[in-house]
Write a structure and sequence with these properties.
The structure holds two protein chains of two kinds.
Chain A lengths: L1 E5 L8 E7 L2 E6 L4 H12 L2 E2 L2 E7 L5 E6 L3 E2 L3 H10 L1 E3 L7 E3 L9 E3 L4
Parallel strand pairs in A: 5-8
Antiparallel strand pairs in A: 1-2, 2-3, 4-7, 5-6, 6-10, 9-10
Chain B lengths: L1 E8 L3 H12 L5 E4 L15 E3 L8 E2 H13 L4 E3 L3 E5 L4 E6 L3 E12 L3 E3 L8 E2 L5 E3 H9 L8 E5 L3 H12 L3 E6 L9 H8 L6 E2 L2 E8 L3 E8 L12 E4 L2 E4 L3 E3 L2 H6 L23 E3 L10 H21 L6 E6 L3 E5 L2 E3 L6 E7 L3 E10 L2 E11 L5 E5 L1 H5 L7 E6 L1
Parallel strand pairs in B: 1-2, 1-8, 2-5, 8-20, 10-15, 11-18, 12-13, 12-18, 13-14, 21-28
Antiparallel strand pairs in B: 3-4, 6-7, 7-8, 9-19, 15-16, 16-17, 21-23, 22-24, 24-27, 25-26, 25-28
Helix pairs in contact in B: 1-2, 1-7, 3-4, 4-5
Classes of the chains: A alpha+beta, B alpha/beta.
């Protein structure tokens, strides 16, 4: 099997072609860096994405503070992860990198703050 | 009146990088004047990741990228005034600003860096027919509502324009539970990055309709729907393709305009294509001691490039403050076939260093060559698999080529198919 992908690892957006059998990747071509190779392989087997959103803050200067996944999560879990993020609430002060939700949905990935408040 | 060696107008990524570089080069007194309540500029609301891969070698969110520079500024003795609006810059670089705490501020500067960034093109510029109901806003305004105010501006969304902010907002609204019905793009290609089409639209099955625009807005108090239509090759709507789409929100991502009111007031020459100042390789305008960098100069794809350009401006300003005027012999850079604009627009051939010319092409090219020609001689000819208007390109004039030039020399960049 052959699939053409646009790499999302960086803003370059390389066009990558992956040849695979089932979940076994045979070749990756068109990428211009190692990140592209890794992206193409995960995309075939278990596509993952980083997501960014906001979490309610109590007692801060702003109503919300931005957060992100500390590592990519499976694409299929994005909306479930959003539900967890929207349930969360944090007390000010908040620091960059502060874990807001540890191990979200058992993925081993944390939801961390990306700004101060 | 206060005296500062360097006044930086704007505390976004451009202003901070320019100020920090000037400090590093030995400029003693520097002040940053920022209109918002905090430093960071537009990055504060860009909570998605994708920033910093080129400059820091890691992927950061907007606020994280900004925080690194804010922290660096805080470690220096650079003065920062937030909530401060610059009203005027005089012929002699006297800067007038106002803020709540100090009232009217008069600051005499030896040099000024303009780093005001850009604004979004508003609805008024598009002449879309229909009522002036609520629910129509620029994508950046919607981004501020959602990401800074924690407020959802709508539930059923149509986006006009496929610039990166529009694409990013399509995903953001979807994540927060809105239904993004369609992204319409007037041109036959998207102005956004490929990766954003994949991860913001394709991932969520949001259709992108090229050569399509919004021709009418419906609704009285609140937007109830829009009529969209395909356009012909003269970009005119085709009557028979009209289609009504129910929505309560229309977001516009139809281009950015450098915010150059101050620049124009000083009488600085403006490039009609970039809508930014005409500058030399150190980003000095035609007004001595006034430099411009970042999105106020020309709209960049990546903040990393803004940072790098602003460091050049900071260095240029520092050299001007510390050493006075340099020997200058200017040669204009000229756009050839396929090239929409070049920055810098003129190059001091006495500079002594390699000079990078940044440019954008007017349409999509496949397997084309970027040719740099100086004095009629081809200096470089680089093959490119793809050139697109949404992606800024660059070409380098080597120092030894510049050294051989004189005031009658020519610099041309063109695309060869």
């Amino acid at each position: 099997m052959k699939r053409d992908l646009t790499c999302v690892a960086c803003p370059l957006g390389c066009q990558i072609t992956v040849e695979y059998e089932g979940t076994e990747v045979l070749s990756v071509t068109g990428n211009t860096c190692k990140r592209g190779d890794a992206y193409a392989r995960t995309e075939i087997v278990n596509p993952t994405r980083n997501i960014a959103s906001t979490v309610k803050v109590v007692g801060g200067a702003h109503p919300v503070v931005p957060v992100k996944t500390s590592a990519p999560i499976p694409k299929t879990m994005i909306f479930d992860c959003m539900k967890e993020i929207n349930k969360a609430c944090v007390n000010a002060p908040v620091s960059i990198g502060q874990v807001i939700i540890p191990d979200v949905l058992g993925t081993g990935v944390d939801i961390v703050a990306t700004n101060i408040d | 009146m206060m005296n500062y060696d360097l006044v930086v107008v704007g505390g976004g990524p451009a202003g901070m990088a320019a100020a920090l570089k000037a400090k590093e080069c030995g400029v003693e007194s520097i002040i940053i004047l920022e209109r918002a309540e905090t430093l960071g500029g537009i990055l504060e609301q860009c909570i998605h990741s994708g920033f910093g891969l080129t400059y820091f070698g890691e992927e950061l969110s907007g606020p994280e990228y900004a925080a690194r520079f804010i922290e660096m500024v805080e470690k220096t003795d650079i003065t920062v005034k937030t909530d401060a609006m610059v009203l005027d810059i005089s012929e002699s670089n006297l800067v007038t600003a106002v803020n709540k705490k100090d009232g009217l501020l008069k600051i005499q500067a030896k040099a000024v860096v303009l780093a005001m960034g850009c604004r979004e093109r508003p609805r008024g510029a598009l002449e879309i027919a229909g009522s002036r109901c609520s629910g129509i806003m620029t994508a950046g305004t919607a981004q501020k509502y959602v990401n800074l105010d924690g407020y959802m501006p709508g539930k059923k969304v149509v986006i006009l324009g496929s610039g990166d902010i529009g694409l990013i907002m399509a995903r953001r609204m979807t994540l927060e539970g809105a239904e993004v019905k369609v992204v319409c793009e007037l041109m036959p290609f998207s102005g956004g990055l490929n990766r954003n089409i994949v991860q913001c639209l394709n991932d969520y099955n949001i259709p992108l309709r090229l050569s399509t625009t919004v021709v009418e807005c419906h609704g009285k108090d609140r937007l109830e729907g829009v009529t969209i239509a395909q356009v012909d090759d003269k970009l005119q709507p085709i009557e028979s393709t009209k289609e009504y789409i129910e929505c309560d929100t229309l977001m516009l991502s139809v281009g950015l305009i450098p915010e150059n009111e101050l620049t124009k007031n000083v009488g600085i020459a403006i490039d009609r294509v970039t809508n930014g100042a005409v500058v030399d390789e150190m980003r000095q305008t035609d007004h001595k001691g006034v430099f411009a960098c970042g999105n106020v100069l020309h709209v960049h794809d990546l903040v990393d490039f803004v940072t790098m350009e602003s460091q050049l401006a900071g260095q240029g300003a520092a050299e001007y403050i510390l050493n006075g005027e340099k020997e200058t012999v200017y040669v204009n850079s000229t756009t050839g076939n396929g090239v929409r604009y070049l920055v810098p627009q003129r190059v001091n051939i006495k500079n002594g260093n390699d000079v990078k010319l940044y440019f954008r092409v007017g349409k999509i090219y496949k397997n084309a060559k970027v040719v740099l020609e100086c004095d009629g001689e081809v200096i470089s000819s680089k093959k490119k698999v793809k050139l697109a208007p949404g992606e800024m390109e660059n070409v380098v004039i080597p120092a030894d080529v510049l050294a051989k030039m004189n005031e009658n020399s020519t610099i041309v960049v063109r695309v060869e198919e």
